[in-house]
Amino acid sequence: MTIDKDVPIPVRDGSFVMANVFRPLGDGPWPVIMNYGPYGKDVHFSEFMPAVWATLQDNHPEITSRSSLTHLTFETPDPEIWTTFGYALVRVDSRGAGKSPGLLHPNSPDEFQDAYEAVEWAAAAPWSNGKVGLLGISYYASGQWMIAQLRPPGLAALQPWQGTYDFYRDRTRQGGIFSSGFVDMWWNRCVVENQHGYASSRFTDYFTGERNTGPALAAEELAANRPDYIQDILDHPLEDDWYKARSADLEQIEVPALVVANWGGLQVHLRGTLLGFEGISSTEKWLRVQRGSYFMTFYHPDNVDIQRRFFDRYLKDQTEAWTGEPVVKVDVRSMDDGVARSLTATAWPLPDCVEQRFHLDAGAGTLSTEPPSTRRQVSFEARKGAAVFSTGPLQQDLTFAGPILLRLRLASTTSEADVFASLQAFNADGSEASFEDSTLAPSPVSQGWLRASHRSVDPSRSGFLRPFHDHHRHQPLVPGDAYDLEVELWPGSLSLPRGAELRLTISGLDFQSSGEGLANMGHDHPCDRPEPEFAGTHTISTGPDVPAYLALPSLEQQS
What we know:
Elements: E1 2-10, E2 16-23, E3 30-37, H1 45-48, H2 50-59, H3 61-64, H4 79-82, E4 88-93, H5 109-124, E5 128-137, H6 139-148, E6 155-161, H7 167-172, E7 173-174, E8 177-178, H8 180-191, H9 219-224, H10 229-234, H11 241-244, E9 257-262, H12 270-279, E10 285-290, H13 294-299, H14 301-315, E11 328-333, E12 339-345, E13 354-361, E14 366-368, E15 376-381, E16 386-390, E17 398-412, E18 418-426, E19 432-433, E20 435-436, E21 442-443, E22 446-451, E23 482-496, E24 501-507, E25 537-542, E26 549-554
Parallel strand pairs: 3-4, 3-5, 5-6, 6-9, 9-10, 10-11
Antiparallel strand pairs: 1-2, 2-4, 7-8, 11-12, 13-14, 13-26, 15-25, 16-24, 17-23, 17-25, 17-26, 18-19, 18-22, 18-24, 20-21
Helix pairs in contact: 5-6
């Protein structure tokens, strides 16, 4: 291939963003795949995320045997593979990142206006056939929604792999609670470390071996060239215009899209990727829901073949490359984190799902298909305790896939209460079934979060077993009064055999599965969850006339 390094792309205010262009040998023209973001077009995967790279090297010969991986950067397609398919790849450092000077402003409308212009530039390049596709994971997937809503000339197709569209509910504030662990790690380790001019960056340019961030700038200039990202989030506890400008208007997206979600995207991307598929206006759209580490599945040869065939259809006009594909294909996980079965459907959520309720009994600590006969209560300290409910050994097989709803009646001794709900599965021998997530650590089946003062639900945007909390107003609790809450647990899937057990834990702090810790996924910023407001005693009530149940999308009636 031919590599054009540090190609300036002009943007609207007379500045530029810097790109690398990887092209097949010859004159072209070729369709273009673009990535636009702050992680560094010249920062090798091995340096950006060493632990994930080590896992790739040690455990995935199906990937490492196909390429030297010399030009692999984090969460982007491999140019060594894609140029052999007849595609040009354009990697762009967003403004203020890596080699691109200016204001570092990720997730902002300004960033995606720059990306619009980069797509337009690529479509008009002399080596381009005029069609641009977007393909990438996480940040490079989330940005696709934002770019596509602007409808840049030349944008022909999307492939967001594990990328939420919802900046408030998924990226920064699950259930209204600040996801401080993830945001702090992401901002300081992944973004600020690669700010243009950052002299102490640990990142190097894999082409040259030099520091990746260009000529050093003074600390004062660096600070002036980036927002106080974390403080901005803390300053905006409700979903106001600041957040709305950072979440895409899905109805504006009409280009063909192959959307891929992963059950391992729990807490950051899973929910919003699925809702992105539901919400876009594209008449030609497909959804795949997979299991495993989404870093690795993206590069697996089978999935690269899917990516290629989709782009061959919409960027090369090879109609036969993508025909007869099911609109929706979902892998249902097994207890050992494999695939129990793969289902196809015409829509998401799966039309054949039926609601199956497991009623909470506060006295017995059970989840039962029958509501309790008497009223009971269970109390726990928000910062120390939990209420645990179990099905006990299941009397018959249970398979589910889709959104999950928890209804609760809860009271607190304080005016605030954060609800953390985790759903675990256990084998008949008592061992926990755990599942690989985006941190490569074991995770439960599903989790959900809700700040009780954000309990207001918008029925017009809610769906099957999926309440949509508007987060537009703060409604403090009256201490001692009970409130009915709808808690959205993120979608999950599992096939449980008879004798297995489901266990629901409700607490006032982050759940730690089997002592594994939280990795970078905690929610406990002192400014967002100050004491004593968030350290009260919580009481859950259940009874025959109390809406307190876990609702699962059962597939047992499906063959």
